[in-house]
Amino acid sequence: MRRVRTKLRWTVIIGLAVTGVFFIVRGLIPTDTPTLEGPNIIVVTLCSVRADRVHEDYGRDLTPNLDRLADQGWRFNQAYTNATTTLPAHASLLTGLLPDRHGVIDFETRLNAALPSLPGVLRLYGYRSAWGMESDRSRIAGGQSSGVAPAGLGQAQGFLDAFDTQFYLNRDGDGLDVFKSWLASDSRPFFALVLLRSAHVPYGDGEPFEEDLDSRVTEWLQPPAVQRPGATLRSERSPAGDREARRMREFLVELNTDEAVRRSLDAAYDSGVAHVDRLLGQLLDVLEVSNQRDNTIVVVVGDHGESLGEGGRLGHDNTLNESVIRVPLVWSDPEGDRRGLDPDRDVSLVDIMPTLLARAGATVPVGLDGQDLGSAVSSDSAMAAQPVRTQAAALPGMVQRRSVVSGTRLDEVLSSGDLRVMFSSTDGPVAYRRASGDLVEVALDSPAVQALVQWKQRADQGRRQGKAERVTLSEEAIRQLQEEGYW
Q: pTM value?
């Protein structure tokens, strides 16, 4: 009997210990001895910035600050988003999970608070955290940054729950003093996530690349442009949706046949990218003057790209073409080691969380979709390469919808080197290979394609789908999303 009681006692003790670790990893129980010696971390997301617009290889020098940062660290040439819109992309970045695992696929879903998050895990190790966003609605007065929290990345979606504070910048950089004051207010290490969005529709004013934009481009970039045309799109088809689809087709014809339209649209987009880079430079300057740069990891990544007519598409919503899924990724670590690093390795947003946690000396939650990229530069371990998965809600037509219904299937593209295999919920798989910068269709029965198809089949066996809570946005939140260009 005593032996049974002893066995039962140890079973309970072990069970409690395992449960404690489970909740600690999820940020529900504080640790007694947090580590305070880790590096500072700032992740800057560049909304809608395409990979082909950065670096001096592009005809216009749009990103000198990003390029300078890459010279101090390293640039990943084959980086991809895991989602094609801002909300699910940031959910993947913060959780290390793909959209089918975290369940956030549109503005009316809320991130599950039980999921381990990057700021939540770092908090267990003594980190403080701040969320910053470039917002046209921000108001800067008396050294304070105020304004309603962004509707699409705010309290309704659960993204701000894990952060200690928020601050907002306007397009002139006002609000950076608030960030600077926050840096100086506490000696603990910090984690900051800052979203810069000048490259999001309606882009920039075209200068200095074109003084006056073509009137047809200016008209197109006015709401609704490639935004959602209104509440009537809750149904699959509507008069408003038909009008916008027709307007998009007409603009695509002008874009593909009139060089003035093409030149003007590129100027608008490029000026937005250049402005994002200027704001990035100002953020880096704040780190320098605050004496924080030498102990701060800086990661700059696109949340998704932007289609400027490629494949007959404009914008990015639920678009899985190359211009949308491939993004810039630059990593600068004062103590980073480039030995063994493959800049052409396939990487994605879900890799950022485990890599940063491992670098900070924190416990990496089990079961993430991402990998610790730091193991690729370790002399005593090797990281098995795996394809990158990008997922998007399977919606018909060219016009974005306000919301997707519960249970909507996800289209997906697998990227591995120069090979792409697209899995459509309606049309089945199609394979492409990059050749001389273009994607050309290849046979599905080729060994390389079949290897990717089989990898996906194995990866999906027993894969549990995530469930995100549905939320109903207020009319004010919808209006705010429209003003921010997200609706």
A: 0.87
Cα three-residue angle 26-27-28, rounded to 5 degrees: 95
pLDDT of residue 236: 44
Q: Which residues are CB-contacts of 367 (< 8 A; sequence separation ≥ 6)?
A: none
Q: How far is CA 191 from CA 194, 286, 383, in A?
A: 10, 15, 26
* 10-residue mean pLDDT series, the chain (487 residues): 42 37 42 66 97 88 95 92 94 96 87 93 95 71 48 75 87 86 93 95 93 94 55 43 77 95 97 96 96 95 95 85 95 74 87 94 94 67 76 60 58 93 86 85 92 92 84 78 70
> Residue 234: what pLDDT?
40
Place of tokens 């396939």: 346
Residue appearing with tokens 């997707």: 404
Supply the pLDDT for residue 35. 55
Structure tokens at 437: 């910068």
The residues, any chain, with a CB within 8 Å of residue 327's CB and separated by 6 or more, are 46, 49, 50, 51, 79, 80, 81, 301, 302, 303, 304, 305
Residue 343, preceding peptide bond in cis (omega within 30° of 0) = no
- Residues 177 and 308: their CA atoms lie apart, in Å, by 35
As a whole number of angstroms, the distance between CA 395 and CA 64 comes to: 37
**Strand ranges (E), 190-284:** 190-196
- CA dihedral sign of residues 440, 441, 443, 449: positive
> Phi/psi at 130 (nearest 5 deg)?
-140, 140
CA distance 467 to 437: 38
The one-letter amino acid code at 133 reads: M
Q: Which stretches of 290-439 are DSSP H helices?
A: 322-325, 352-360
- 149's CB contacts (< 8 A; 6+ apart) are 155, 160, 166
Q: Any idea which residue has 């890459």 for tokens?
A: 70
